[in-house]
Amino acid sequence: MRVAVVGANGQLGADVLAEYQRLGAETEGLTHADIDISSLESTQTALSRIRPTIIVNTAAMHHVENCEKEPLRAYEVNALGARNLSIVARESDSKFVHVSTDYVFDGSKKAPYVEGDPAAPLNVYGNTKLAGEAFIQGTAEKYFILRTSALYGKNPCRAKNGRNFVDLMLKLAGERDELRVVDDEVVSPTSTAELARQITVLTQTEHYGLYHATAEGHCTWYEFARTICEITNTNVNLKIAEPNEFPIKVPRPKYSVLENQKLKKLGLNSFLSWQDELTTYLSTPAMKLRAGA
Questions:
Q1: CA–CA distance from 59 to each of 12, 31, 95, 207 (Å)?
Q2: Which positions are annotated as active-site residues?
Q3: Which phi and psi angles does 233 have, rounded to 5°?
Q4: By CB distance 3.0 to 4.6 Å, which of 9, 79, 87, 152 could disulfide with 164?
Q5: Which class does domain 2-153+190-216+255-272 fall in?
Q6: Cβ distance 89 to 36 under 8 Å?
Q7: Could you tell me the end-to-end alpha-carbon distance of the chain, in angstroms, rounded to an integer?
Q8: Distance in angstroms (rounded) separating the CA atoms of residues 71 and 102
Q9: pLDDT given for residue 293 in this prediction
Q10: What are the pLDDT digits (tens) for 23-69?
Q11: Average pLDDT over all residues of the chain
Q12: DSSP string, 173-231
């Protein structure tokens, strides 16, 4: 098994690379310095050297506000990038894994979305990711598309100044007496380590297709923050933000909970509850140090 991980220096990519290495796979991590997925020529050149049996794409332009400012670039990376990787995967007869998003939905359902629900993105990011899914489904033969939600992990999140939501809450709690967090967006916070594990489980099969892949259960951002503080014994005055206290520049779904229906039907769902995943994440020595434990 020879695995090429695109976006290997990112929050998810680093965990995917580590998980395949743990399984004894021959791995090659690719960063933007190695490959420009918006260019078919660059994609073909980089991957022909590796000759992977599995290609995992974790690279994306996922800063929502920047996608609105640069829609063409977002389309080049999120849509054409997926197409280019699909072409190479088909040409090399490789399995192709692509990570997509809960933002392909508008949040109006108010119940967990399953894979067959119609998509209706609210913003450029969601639209370009949905376009990427369509390119893959029309181009690749051996593909796994995994939609996920609210990722956090031990590796820096480059699009968010190196901090995920957990890190940010712990940092702010150490600097302020009071934290105010929105309570009107419902998500399924998902550990990148657990998503990486799910990817390795799925790619050992030939059950190709589109999947939802998130931690079990859901919460609001306020409930997520409250649980972070409870697990780490962080003493801060945590309050629910007032309506419109933090104006949203770009429309986002208020409810983007995904149900891992297909994974469960196949008996392949490896996710824990979001609370258990968070507890595991916060129990690592590095996170204990950040939390001041």
A1: 9, 8, 17, 23
A2: 125
A3: 55, 40
A4: 152
A5: alpha beta
A6: no
A7: 40
A8: 19
A9: 44
A10: 999 999 999 999 999 999 999 999 999 999 999 999 999 889 999 99
A11: 92
A12: HHH-SEEEE--S-EE--EEHHHHHHHHHHHHTS---EEEE---BS-EEHHHHHHHHHHH
Rounded to whole angstroms, how far apart are CA atoms 19 and 246? 37
Strand-pairing partners, residue 258, are 113
Residues 6+ apart with CB under 8 A from 83: 132, 135, 136, 139
pTM: 0.92
Tell me the CA distances in angstroms from 28 to 20, 47, 50, 106, 157, one per residue in order: 10, 10, 7, 36, 20
Tokens standing for 121?
């993105």
Residue 53 CA to residue 96 CA, distance in Å, equals 9
CA distances from 29 to 16, 26, 74, 84, 121 (A): 10, 10, 22, 18, 31
pLDDT, one tens digit per residue, over 93-107 is 999 999 999 999 999
